[in-house]
Amino acid sequence: MCLNYWKAGLSSAPDEVWRHEDDCTALILADNHLTELPAALGRLRSLHTLDLGHNALTGIPEEIGELAAGLTRYLYLHDNRITGLPDGLCALDRLGYLNIGENPLGRLPERTGEMAGLVELRAQHAALVSLPVSVGKLGSLREVWLGGNMLAELPDTVEGLRSLRVLELRNNALPRVPEALRTLPLLRRIDLRGNRIGELPSWLTELPSLEKLDVRWNAVADSAEPVLALREMGCVVLT
């Protein structure tokens, strides 16, 4: 059963939600006025999809971790006022898609790497200044979206993201292309627009799957040797 309360003008979750804790598989509470969620959220153990985007939530209850067995598809927490994520979130080790963007998070939990099922992670405009070392354990990740943060580097453990296809890092503070990317065999698209990069490393030509590299709004010269070499190989390079 899907309970859909999209744009319903709600300030709290309806009582009906808790009457369907055994058969509610998708709960949509997006675009409302929610400021908090009760611990009872952890009772909705049949959920595979939970959409809480576009509200005014300042936090998420620790009990969200009790949804680990069922919450396998989508969790939307974007565009709220969440300042920190509970460790319970990291218990969702079967979740495939997580969007926590447009929140003043500052950091991700140190245990983020325990979310082994993640295929796509979106954390754009989340005031991130660093990523936890454990992120390198997310070996199933195919897409990571981190634009609009304050990242000046990536942890070396990123080399463990062997399934990564898409990496979006536009509008951060990176002074160089992170060295850890050179070992990612499936990486197809890298977006580095609006960083502080002055030159490209030659090892970019060694990435066997690279199809598109976007380094606009950096100080990279269009005539730089790696740019020309990549284009010769058929890679689209935007400078």
TrEMBL record:
Domain of life: Bacteria
InterPro entries associated with the record: Leu-rich_rpt, Leu-rich_rpt_typical-subtyp, LRR-SigEffector_domain, LRR_dom_sf
Protein name (database record): Leucine-rich repeat-containing protein
UniProt entry tagged with the keyword Aminoacyl-tRNA synthetase: no
Keywords: Leucine-rich repeat, Repeat
UniProt source species: Streptomyces natalensis ATCC 27448
SUPFAM superfamilies: L domain-like (SSF52058)
Pfam family, one: LRR_8
Record flagged with keyword Repeat: yes
